[in-house]
Amino acid sequence: MIISRAEIESAVSAYRTSRKKKAQAAQSVSFDTDPLDVDYVSSSEASSFAEMAASVTAEPMYREALVKDLQQRIAQGKYYVPSEQIVEKLLGRLVLEALPA
């Protein structure tokens, strides 16, 4: 698969248009009440959510079994990634790096 410069520029243009639309939509949001006048009330649901969030962050951010399997396959020389996938990731990163922040 060959990705031309025109295709990359088209994708970047579509991405920029999407970002502009999201920014305009965010600016046009109106509140029924003043956000500073809203009172905070803790509930049992909020505390259970906080407990759930704490338990999720306590777990590792990766799947240990998958990582161990990949480590074994790499060590044995049995891990293969098609070159097309590598090129796509590299080009995607280059495009994202070229975009203004």
If you had to describe this structure to a student in words, what would you say it looks like?
The chain has helices spanning 5-27, 44-58, 64-76, 83-98. It is an all-alpha fold.
Key attributes of the depicted protein:
mainly alpha; 101 residues
Rounded to the nearest angstrom, the distance between the terminal CA atoms is 29 Å
Major sheet size, sense and barrel closure? none
- Mean pLDDT, all residues: 80
What Rg, in angstroms, do the CA atoms define? 23 Å
Which H/E pattern describes the elements? HHHH
Structural class: mainly alpha
Instruction: Give the helix proportion (percent range).
Output: 55-70%
Strand fraction = under 5%
Low-confidence stretches: none
What is the subunit arrangement here?
single chain
Query: How does the overall form come out from the CA principal axes?
Result: flat
What's the count of strands? 0
